[in-house]
Amino acid sequence: MSQQTSSEKLRWTTADLELLAADEWKHYEIIDGELFVTRAPHLRHQAVIRNICNELGNWSDETQLGEAFPTPGIIFSDADNVIPDAVWISVGRMERFIDEAGHFTGAPELIVEVLSPGVMNERRDREAKLKLYSSQGVEEYWIVSRELQQVEVYRRENAVLKRAATYTAQDTITSPILPRFGCLIERFFRQIGTTR
């Protein structure tokens, strides 16, 4: 029996995802040929995504500069296929980067990931996805912690996403890519009821 060497590392592709059984309770993503499988997130995780999309969507409705989407598919390449929690994309990029199946094929200006519990989940968002989004031309990346009620903002600087700020619940987030957008961070975490 032969052992697999690092140069023979198994690489997943977009075509491989089509062979996996459709399971609405799992998300399959490929980053640099590595398969990541996650369960459907906590209901409050999804509420944070909805709240962020609502804030970005309301601003987009007023400005007509672009659109916010929850959990879109982005196929950067056969080896990089992800489902971020939310994105905002300008009208210009939207016209260039949507394929016939309704997936993005290029980088939106803003990508948002809400952290899920677990070391592997956090490493995926803070390391693997940060590198991927940086290499693909994302202008701004928000890593959102539901537990800490904070948002870490990474902005493109010298062709790389670098940490620019950390906003807490009482701060107002703004962005150079979203003219006149401002939102109190605690609005991202508002909820009805007490389910945690």
From TrEMBL:
* Putative restriction endonuclease domain span: 18-181
InterPro entries attached to this UniProt entry = Nuclease_put_TT1808 (IPR012296), Restrct_endonuc-II-like (IPR011335), Uma2 (IPR008538)
Q: What is this protein called?
A: Putative restriction endonuclease domain-containing protein
What broad taxonomic lineage does this protein's source fall under?
Answer: Bacteria, Bacillati, Cyanobacteriota, Cyanophyceae, Leptolyngbyales
